[in-house]
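User: Structure tokens for both sequences below?

Assistant:
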Amino acid sequence: MQILEIFGIAVALSIDAMVVALCWGAVQPTIKASHILKFSLVFAAFQALMPTLGWFAGGALYSLISAWDHWVAFLLLFFVAVSMIREAFEKGDDNEECECRSMGSDIAWGKLSMLAVATSLDALAVGFSFAMVKTPIAMPAIVIGVVCAILTALSMLAARVLSEKAARHSKKLSLLGAAVLLLIGLRILFEHGVFA
């Protein structure tokens, strides 16, 4: 898998974390450097951990499903993409406002960790798909974590200016992320001669 594809996956997986960071930042009177560091580290850690766990699970099962590995990888990416599409349409109107006021001005580590798990579950399936196409996980996990940390930090820094616009366009961002994952899944099938 090429670095550009891994970067595309990382950006797609970071969209939910970015939206949460934007929404939280938008309702805060002040955003401190400690808030940015806290959000970035927690979201990045889970975004890097989940594909690693998925990869180990996939590696353990690989011998059982090696004849269909490309289909498993495609179906997992397809599942994540469909999940992103469904979430996009469940978000309601594009003009919907962020509903992060209930998180409080100094979010607890436990609550932040739960949000990080919820926004990184898709990465578990992506890690499983990496195992199916025999892609080592170290570099993708690092890229996914670093990209998530950077995008989360940028989202919080830009929260005051971009929060309303991001909330209005979160559906489009989710659909774009889903399209990236579907295209990568189709490329995996193409490389395995499914369309030949």
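Moving on to the next sequence.
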Amino acid sequence: MSERKRSGRSVPSKSSGTGSAPGVSAENSDGGYNAGMAVFSYIIGGIIVWSLIGWGLDNLWGTRWIVLAGALLGAAGGFYLSHMHGLTSHRNTAGKSGAGDDSGPSADRNTNAK
């Protein structure tokens, strides 16, 4: 019998939530270390995979430049995936705003008209 059935309580699933990268929990929306590792793995993984594809095409066609194009394509693809998963967006932490931030309504809910 599984541990969940014996204890009578539900065990939270380890799903990553909607729209986030694998390994980045939905509860911790600031990302942090996991988001950084996801960005790193997307970029390095893209470079490695597309460089190997370029290396194979170079050997097949007798060229020497496709491996470099593959590495650049892999890096761009890694940045693209990171951006699409929301890992590279700027997020303010709760209660902290940048100095001179006049982008929202004032405390009395009026617009920023002066």
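User: Anything stand out in the second?

Assistant: Residues 32-89 form one domain.
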